[in-house]
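Q: I'm building a small set of examples for a reading group on sequence design. Run inverse folding on the following structure and report the sequence directly after it, with nothing in between.
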């Protein structure tokens, strides 16, 4: 008895013949579906072309055997017993062409083309014909029984053995690989095999009809007529006309899926009537996939950049899900995730927009984030909450930190600050003039009851100050000793030079000598007691110079590649410098914009610069390091002359040390140092003496 289907107030009752045909069709589709996954797996499990040819054929044979077995059982249930499996298959292939055979022939034909000679081709074709007769007609057994898979594989064994021996050349192997990796061909094999299996329902229905049963098959004329009616049915047609036309089309061809698409677009599926009808005619999977596709397309165009948009779009998505009777979908889950992300962004915006430089402000931010999370049911485990907790933790640590020391509690830190103030009062109460004063300061600090860490900090400061003073004092002794004895400084002078630069600041030789010996008034014995004071050396208060002037004020102290004697023993005057006559240059040979080397501060060292103006015999120089000076033209050397005549030194690797060398190339400017090093150098890294 035929079932009836409700459709938006109308009723569709298929004829008994259509009902019976649909029952047989669904029986076969269900049988095919039960093994389709296994078919896909086996068709894709082959590791080479030989396995693909043999394996797909045997899998196809087993597939047909299983579905034919189900078809014969269905006939038996309807009291039809005159067909066994072999006869059923023979009847089917007389009416319907096997698609798999056609696609499989394409595969084998391509493989056959790899054969390298006619003898091989003839042997292969003979084995192939013998194998096919057993595979298609089952003439070997006369019956398709449980051993069909083994029988089919045995029939093909000789063919495959020949195939496996084909093409020993590299070219043949490459062709085999190309065939094996043809994804489209492999997909066509799978689809053809499943299509052939599904087509068995035609023979099942025909046999039932031949035995007097009512069966209405779907003719090509009915398919065309139903399709034409659908093409002319406007989506805007009135409800009554649309439903009447739809029911007429269903009677003609209920398997036209476009009918169900129209129903979903025109109406909805709130009551599940469209899904129930599609399921009855074996279209359950397609109708669900189509619904999900509609939902995804709608989801893709919905605005969801802000929290407000995402919430509104979720409501619209829920409305569509209800209309399509969709209970579970990925789009709704994704929209929920988007809403959560938007909520996190809003919480972060609260964090970013509010001041939080003080602890009080930071707690206000935290309260605002908590209030938002509670309102949005977000929970407090959010990036914004993590950030404000980090800010509060840093503020707390800052409060517990005194002089770089992090204390366990704020109370201990507060007491440490009081101790710090007390120690600093002690420091200001003791005049730190002589070295022994520092020992008194250390004892005074130790006598107090101060925090251990703060006390240790200041005691280290005292010890470091004394150690630094001793280091400077020893430096002064060493310098004074060598000065008084007119000693050559040898390599030790280089180290002394570096120490003086680092510890005393930048001075020229005469100024440094005065600083170290207290204007020349004390000797080696004068600095050999605890009565020596930092102020007597004027070290701590000596003014620092610009880095560019450091280089110039140290000019003439010697180089890093040769021993240098202190010039003019017993004198505190600087060494003599080159005169105008030494340069032998005309006053009118320069012009503004010209790159030159010029003698800085009437010393004996020349530095690179640019002429900014020429006023008679006076030249304005802008040194490349930023200094400016007006000087006689005789103190200026043209660039090429300077590079060729000056005893050049280079500022190696742009550091603080100067090394002697020569210019080996001008493009690019390259310095070859006397110790063998070579580097590309900028002009401002050079200086020289005559």
């Amino acid at each position: 008895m035929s079932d009836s289907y409700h459709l938006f107030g109308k009723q569709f009752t298929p004829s008994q013949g259509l009902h019976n045909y649909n029952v047989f069709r669904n029986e076969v589709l269900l049988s095919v579906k039960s093994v389709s996954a296994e078919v896909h797996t086996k068709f894709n499990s082959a590791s080479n072309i030989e396995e693909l040819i043999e394996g797909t054929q045997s899998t196809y044979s087993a597939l047909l055997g299983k579905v034919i077995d189900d078809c014969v059982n269905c006939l038996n249930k309807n009291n039809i017993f005159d067909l066994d499996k072999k006869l059923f298959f023979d009847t089917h292939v007389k009416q319907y062409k096997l698609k798999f055979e056609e696609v499989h022939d394409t595969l084998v034909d391509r493989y056959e083309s790899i054969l390298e000679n006619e003898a091989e081709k003839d042997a292969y074709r003979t084995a192939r014909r013998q194998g096919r007769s057993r595979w298609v007609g089952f003439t070997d057994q006369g019956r398709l029984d449980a051993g069909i898979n083994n029988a089919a594989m045995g029939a093909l064994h000789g063919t495959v053995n020949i195939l496996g021996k084909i093409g020993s050349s590299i070219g043949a192997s490459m062709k085999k690989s190309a065939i094996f990796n043809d994804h489209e061909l492999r997909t066509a094999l799978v689809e053809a095999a499943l299509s052939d299996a599904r087509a068995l329902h035609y023979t099942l229905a025909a046999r039932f009809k031949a035995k007097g049963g009512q069966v209405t098959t779907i003719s090509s004329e009915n398919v065309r007529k139903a399709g034409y009616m659908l093409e002319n049915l406007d989506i805007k047609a009135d409800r009554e006309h649309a439903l009447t036309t739809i029911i007429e089309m269903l009677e003609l061809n209920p398997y036209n899926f476009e009918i169900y698409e129209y129903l979903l677009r025109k109406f909805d599926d709130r009551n599940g009537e469209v899904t129930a009808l599609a399921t009855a005619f074996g279209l359950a999977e397609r109708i669900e996939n189509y619904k999900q596709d509609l939902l995804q397309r709608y989801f893709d165009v919905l605005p969801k950049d802000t929290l407000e948009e995402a919430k509104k779009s979720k409501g619209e998505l829920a409305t569509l899900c209800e209309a399509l009777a969709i209970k579970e979908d990925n789009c709704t889950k994704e929209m929920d995730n988007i809403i959560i992300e938007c909520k996190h962004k809003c919480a972060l915006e609260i964090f970013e927009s509010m001041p939080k430089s003080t602890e009080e402000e930071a707690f206000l931010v935290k309260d605002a984030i908590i209030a938002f999370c509670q309102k949005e049911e977000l929970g407090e485990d959010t990036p914004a909450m993590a950030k404000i907790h980090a800010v509060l933790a840093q503020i707390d640590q800052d409060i517990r930190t005194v002089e770089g020391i992090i204390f366990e509690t704020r109370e201990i830190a507060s007491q440490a600050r009081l101790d710090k103030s007390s120690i600093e009062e002690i420091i200001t109460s003791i005049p730190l003039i002589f070295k022994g004063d520092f020992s008194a300061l250390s004892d005074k600090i130790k006598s107090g009851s101060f925090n251990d860490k703060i006390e240790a900090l200041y005691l280290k400061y005292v010890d470091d100050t004394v150690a630094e003073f001793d280091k400077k004092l020893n430096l002064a002794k060493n310098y004074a000793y060598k000065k008084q004895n007119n000693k050559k400084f040898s390599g030790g002078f280089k180290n002394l030079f570096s120490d003086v630069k680092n510890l005393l600041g930048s001075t020229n030789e005469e100024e440094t000598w005065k600083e170290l010996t207290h204007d020349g008034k004390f000797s080696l014995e004068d600095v050999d007691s605890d009565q020596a004071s930092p102020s007597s050396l004027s070290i701590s208060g000596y003014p620092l110079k610009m880095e560019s002037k450091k280089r110039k004020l140290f000019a003439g102290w010697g180089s890093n590649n040769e021993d240098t004697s202190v010039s003019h023993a017993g004198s505190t005057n600087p060494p003599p410098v080159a005169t105008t006559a030494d340069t032998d240059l005309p006053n009118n040979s320069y012009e503004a914009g010209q790159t030159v080397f010029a003698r800085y501060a009437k010393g004996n060292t020349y530095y690179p610069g640019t002429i900014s103006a020429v006023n008679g015999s006076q030249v304005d120089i802008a040194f490349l390091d930023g200094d400016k000076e007006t000087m006689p033209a005789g103190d200026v050397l043209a660039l090429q002359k300077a590079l060729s005549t000056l005893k050049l030194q280079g500022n190696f690797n742009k550091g603080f040390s100067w090394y002697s060398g020569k210019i080996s190339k001008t493009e690019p400017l390259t310095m070859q140092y006397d110790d063998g090093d070579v580097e590309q150098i900028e002009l401002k890294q050079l200086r020289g003496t005559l």
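The chain is about 60% helix and 10% strand.
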